[in-house]
From TrEMBL:
The lineage of its organism: Bacteria, Bacillati, Actinomycetota, Actinomycetes, Pseudonocardiales. Residues 104-127 form the Glucose-methanol-choline oxidoreductase N-terminal domain. Keywords: Cholesterol metabolism, FAD, Flavoprotein, Isomerase, Lipid metabolism, Oxidoreductase, Signal, Steroid metabolism, Sterol metabolism. This is Cholesterol oxidase. Gene3D superfamilies: Cholesterol Oxidase, domain 2, FAD/NAD(P)-binding domain. It comes from Lentzea aerocolonigenes. Coiled coil: none annotated.
């Protein structure tokens, strides 16, 4: 029997989903969030919620036999990753034929595992990517609102310039300047007052213990501490964890969901039917696109358009590393980026290598402007999705990254590191942290994320943005969701 009590259901608890839940809750609309991952608030036997970076355990990854950290080798040796028990851990790596995607799993989605870099994109590029969105309104209202609600803050200049924990960033900045490239201080959602306490020894260490991709035990203002806490405080929002939505069907003037509830070891506990009037998809670029493709191709939501699945891109992500003395103390939270967008179409975050030893490596996650796009397809055989994306589509990104880092190496007498991404490989172009697209705004949906062909169905996450945003994406995803929800709550849900 269907659980029919739901006015609105939000699938997922990442950025777009959290905005939807807060704004619906504030309007007095009873809202249920369904999240396939866990709520991360209970310490394990070691007293910590998340496992250590350098000694990961089952909490690290989403049902894997081995950790899959992006740096595979150190000095060419496969010593970074290790066997773990299969469990509902916090970081997932989804493998397609020629591209892999890292994702956060749990209440807070990507906010649990990401580097916290809170970048408002360059207005000119935002207008190029989303020409039909009113940029005045975004930059005057919704970007400031997103930054404020996410509790974005900026490192104190005196701390940045003096602490040994950011020597790696200062050295990379100087070397960038030698090569003629400018850098920027990047705001973050990590609480820098807490970090300074970590450095003084008065606060428990998290960023300064190298924590990031397997979760931060302290200091990070992930969504569970901001948007989702505010949403729960309205009294109208509930979150159901370890609830994986598998199927969406039309049901009267709303939707019927088939949801699998599992335990953290993967055992199926229950298959539920949940119906709702308004359905918000915030399952991320991969999750939302998969649900809609399955619904379209199985005939559950037959009016969905051919646009579903199209326009996907990895935000031009390329990881690379150079030789450099960075120091053995490295904060896990990046705070500087090389901004070579104007001349080279590269915006490269200066990333830490928080190994606790001198690795002689300077690491970068470069975001590049890459016009190539991929397409998702539903595969009836596996009941999953495939991604039509070929490795060679990363060529424009590699060319752009070479334009910056060949010059960095030439002027600073450094070389690329061939021992971090597998032996001999100097550019890692086969994974992304920034999946974007699959249900594009204005194509698969209308200009506010209303899915074309079916009423009361909305997309609210990174799948709305067509493959590239020129900066780390979560502030853009949040601000766009704010804009769309402000319209939808005023018009579609006004009662
Ligand atoms: P998001 O992926 O956050 O959330 C989707 C949620 O839905 C997840 O919790 C998932 O478990 C759940 N879900 C999926 N399918 C479901 C289903 N069928 N049923 C129920 N639940 C389902 N960005 C940035 O701006 N600055 C940064 O520093 C970084 N750094 C970074 C590092 C790493 C390691 C990663 C993996 C990512 C980043 N990012 C980043 C990217 C950023 O985290 C990402 O763009 C956003 O989290 C995407 O937000 P969404 O709302 O689209 O979905």
């Amino acid at each position: 029997k269907a659980d029919t009590n739901h006015e609105a259901v939000v699938i997922g608890t990442g950025y777009g989903a959290a905005v939807a839940a807060l704004r619906l809750g504030q309007r007095g609309i009873r809202t249920t969030m369904l999240e396939m991952g866990q709520l991360w608030d209970e310490p394990g036997p070691d007293g910590k919620i998340f496992c250590p970076m350098l000694n990961p355990d089952r909490r690290a990854m989403w049902f894997k036999d081995r950790t899959e950290a992006p740096l595979e080798t150190l000095l060419g040796l496969p010593i970074v990753n290790r066997p773990i028990e299969r469990y509902a851990g916090v970081l997932d790596k989804v493998h397609f034929a020629e591209m892999a995607v890292y994702l956060g799993r749990g209440v807070g989605g990507g906010s649990l595992v990401n580097g916290g870099m809170a970048v408002t994109p360059k207005r000119e590029y935002f207008e190029e990517v989303l020409p039909d969105v009113d940029a005045d309104e975004m930059y005057g209202k919704f970007f400031p609102l997103a930054n404020k609600t996410l509790r974005v803050n900026t490192i104190r200049p005196a701390f940045l310039e003096s602490t040994s924990w950011y020597q790696y960033a200062r050295t990379a900045r100087r070397q960038a300047a030698n090569a003629g490239f400018g850098t920027q201080v990047i705001p973050n959602v990590y609480d820098f007052a807490h970090m300074e306490g970590e450095a003084r020894g008065t606060k428990p260490k998290s960023a300064l213990a190298g924590e990031v991709i397997y979760g931060n035990n302290h200091g990070k203002m992930s969504l569970d501490k901001t948007y989702l806490a505010d949403a729960l405080a309205t009294g109208n929002v509930t979150i159901k964890t370890l609830h994986h939505v598998k199927r969406i069907q039309q049901h009267q003037d709303g939707y019927l969901l088939t949801v699998e509830q599992r335990d953290p070891f993967g055992k199926l506990l229950n298959t539920k039917k949940i119906s709702c009037r308004h359905l918000f998809l915030g399952a991320g670029s991969l999750g939302t696109t998969e649900l809609l493709l399955r619904a379209r191709d199985n005939g559950d939501l037959p009016n969905l358009s051919d646009e579903i699945g199209r326009g996907w891109g990895p935000n031009g992500n390329v990881m690379t590393a150079r030789t450099m003395i960075g120091g053995f103390q490295q904060s896990g939270m990046p705070v500087l980026a090389i901004d070579a967008w104007q001349d080279h179409e590269v915006f490269a975050e200066i990333a830490p290598v928080p190994a606790g030893v001198e690795t002689l490596a300077s690491l970068y996650l470069a975001i590049t402007k890459n016009p190539e796009r991929g397409t998702f397809h539903y595969d009836r055989g596996t009941d999953g999705i495939t991604l039509d994306w070929r490795r060679e589509q990363m060529k424009p990104s590699i060319r752009a990254v070479r334009g910056v880092f060949d010059e960095m190496n030439r002027t600073n007498l450094s070389t690329y590191r061939p021992d971090l991404f597998g032996i001999g490989k100097v550019f890692s172009d086969d994974f992304t942290y920034h999946p974007l697209g699959g249900c594009l705004l204005g194509r698969a949906t209308d200009e506010y994320g209303r899915v074309r062909g079916h009423k009361n169905l909305y997309v609210t996450d990174g799948s709305l943005i067509g493959g590239s945003i020129g900066a780390n994406p979560f502030v853009s995803i949040t601000a766009l969701a704010e804009r769309n929800l402000s319209r939808i709550t005023a018009t579609d849900l006004n009662h």
